[in-house]
Amino acid sequence: MAAAAAERERVPFTFSAAGLDHPHIHSMVQGLLDAGAQLMHIYDENPDQANALRAKFQTGQVVQELSAILHSEVDLVATSIVPSKRGALGVQVLEHDKHFLSAKAPFTTMAQLHAAEDAVRRSGKKWAVFYSERLAVEAALLADGIVQEGLIGELFQLTGSGPHRLQAETRPAWFFDPGKNGGILCDIGSHQIEQLLHYARCKDAKVLHSKVANYAHPQYGDWQDFGDATLVTDTGVSQYFRVDWFTPEGLRVWGDGRTVLHGTNGFVELRKYTDVARSAVGDHLYVVTDEEEIYFPAKGKVGIPYFRQLIDDCVLGTETAMSQEHTFRAAALAIQAQEQAISLTKAGERR
Amino acid sequence: MAAAAAERERVPFTFSAAGLDHPHIHSMVQGLLDAGAQLMHIYDENPDQANALRAKFQTGQVVQELSAILHSEVDLVATSIVPSKRGALGVQVLEHDKHFLSAKAPFTTMAQLHAAEDAVRRSGKKWAVFYSERLAVEAALLADGIVQEGLIGELFQLTGSGPHRLQAETRPAWFFDPGKNGGILCDIGSHQIEQLLHYARCKDAKVLHSKVANYAHPQYGDWQDFGDATLVTDTGVSQYFRVDWFTPEGLRVWGDGRTVLHGTNGFVELRKYTDVARSAVGDHLYVVTDEEEIYFPAKGKVGIPYFRQLIDDCVLGTETAMSQEHTFRAAALAIQAQEQAISLTKAGERR
Predict the structure, then answer these.
(1) Under CATH, which architecture does the A134-304+336-350 domain have?
(2) Residue B165, Cβ neighbours under 10 Å: how many?
(3) What number is the ipTM of this complex?
(4) B293 vs A250: CB contact, 8 Å cut-off?
(5) pLDDT confidence of residue B188
(6) Nearest Cβ partner for B290 among A250, A256, A351
C-alpha cells in the first residue's frame, strides 16, 4: 500500500471516461477522483453527454474520437455505455493495454463474457465492474465483517430485494430494449448475485430457478418490470432475490433495497437506502445474535474503500477490491438466471 | 348474523378437544371460548395432556375414550394431534356428524387430504384449519383491507419469511420425524401458501420450485431446519417464502415473521410478531403508497374475528371465516411444495 501510494504521488493514476449512456458514470468518476486518480479524457458518440460530464466535474478534456483515448497513455477507461456494448468496448480497451472499469451489468450475453475472459488472459489487464449495491454501501461492508466474525453463526442463506424507481420519462429508448439492457435479472439482478458470491466467500453457484414478468408496462413489450431467482453456492448456501421497477412515488428514496444474511445463530438485515417511515437516509443495520437485538446506523462509519483499492490493484497487480474470477462469475450467473427465466406474463398480459 | 347469535344464546355452540399433542390447541380452545362456545370434553391418549388442558381452562370434562366425544352431541371437535394423525381423526369426527377444527398442517399426505374431501362431501360438515399466522394476526387482517382498497395498486407478488424458534428441548420425538410432522414446507410453510391464496383472492396456484435442508441439526437425520418455495397463482401473482427453525436466542419473540405484499403502486410490509431492536410487541404495518410512507401499529386495532365467524359458519352453513375449497387447496399446495422439494443437504451434511 505504501509503495502504491508513493508510486501514485510520483505518477498519478490516470483514467478516461468513454461511453456515458447510464448516469452510473457520475459516481464512478467521482469515486476515482476522490481516490486520487486524474481524469484525462471524456468521450461519447453524443457530444452533449460528454460536455455534460465535463461541465459537472470541471476536469478532463472532451475528445472527438475514442481512438484519442485508446492511443493515449491513460491507465484505465471507465464506461457506462449501453450494456450490450460494454463487452466490445472493454476488449478494445484491454487490447490497447489499459485497465477497464464497467458499470454493471458488464455483459448481456455469454459470448461477450467469453471474449472478455480472452482479452484479460491476453493482456493481463483488469476488467473491473462497479457492483455499487454492495461496494458503495457502508452497511453492506459492515455486514460482511459481522458475518466473518461469526456473530450470526454459519451463513446459510441470503435474501435480497432490489426494487428500483422507474422514472420512465428519464429513460432512453435502449433502457426498454432487453436486447440492449440484458433483461432485469442480468441488469439489476447482477448486484444480488455478486453479493451471494461475496458474502458466502464461494467461487461458484448454480441458478436453480428464475422468472421474469412485465406486469404493468405493456407499452414496452417484452421489457421486464419484475424478476426473481434462487441460487445455491457450491458450498450449499442458498439465495433468493427479487428485483422490480415498482418503487412507489411515495417512497422518499429510489428504492427500499434490503439484504438479509441468515445464519445458524443470528441474522443481519440491511436496509440499504432508507428505513421506511423512519429515515430517508440509508445504511441501516439490524442485527440479531444469540445475545441481543442491535440497531446500528452505519452511514459515515466506514467509508467506501473500493476505488482506492481498485487503483492499488491496477498498480500492484493485486486483487483487493475484487478478484477477476469473482467479477466474471457474478456476471455469468446473472446472464444464466436471465436466460433460464420462465416468463409469468407475455408482453404485459398475464397468462 | 343476528339469527346465529340468537341461536347460540338459546343452544350454546359446543365443542370438545381431542388430541392435544401440539400447544396450538391452547389458542384454539381460548379462541372458541372467547367466541362464546362451550368446552364439553377433553381427550388425549396421554391423560397428563388432557389434565393439563383441563387445569388451564377450568372447564370441560376429561374423558377416557374418544368415543365418548364421537357419540356425544357436541357441534365441533378441535385437535392438535400429531399432524400425520389429523386426517384420520377428522374423518371419524365428520362421520359422527360433527364439524372439525384442525391445527395446521392438517395433512401430511395427499391421500389424507383426499379422504378428508370425501368425508366433507358425504357429511356436509366443515373441516376447518386454524392458519394462525394470518387469522390471529391483526396486522395481517388490516393489510388485507389495504390491498383490497387498492392503496398499493395491483398486487403482483407476496414474499414471506417465517422463522421459528426451535426450543429443541421442549419438542416431543414426533416433531423431528418428517413422516409425522410432514416436513418443514408442509408444516410451517402451509401458513405462507394460505396467505398467497387469500391475499391474491385466487382459487389455485402452482409450485414452481421448492427446496429443503438440514443445515445444522445432523442429530435429527432427515428432519429439516430450512425450506423455501416459489409459487404462482392462476391469476399470475407470484410468491416466494422461506421458513426456518433458526430464530436466534437474542430475539425477544419466537420469530421475526414478515410478509410483504408488493403492488404496482406501493407495498405493505407486515412485521408480525416484533419490530427488531424497536419493539417486542407484534402487529406492525409499514405501508408505502404513491403518496406517502406510513407506519401503523395494528395491535389491538381490529381484533380477531376468526372463531366467531367459524361458529357462525357452522351454524348457518356460510363460509365467512374461510371456504372449504381454500382450506384444502392451501394444504394440498403445501404438500406439493414438500414433495417436489430438492434437498440442499443430506442429513445435516452439506452436499
Answers:
(1) 2-Layer Sandwich (3.30)
(2) 15
(3) 0.94
(4) yes
(5) 94
(6) A250
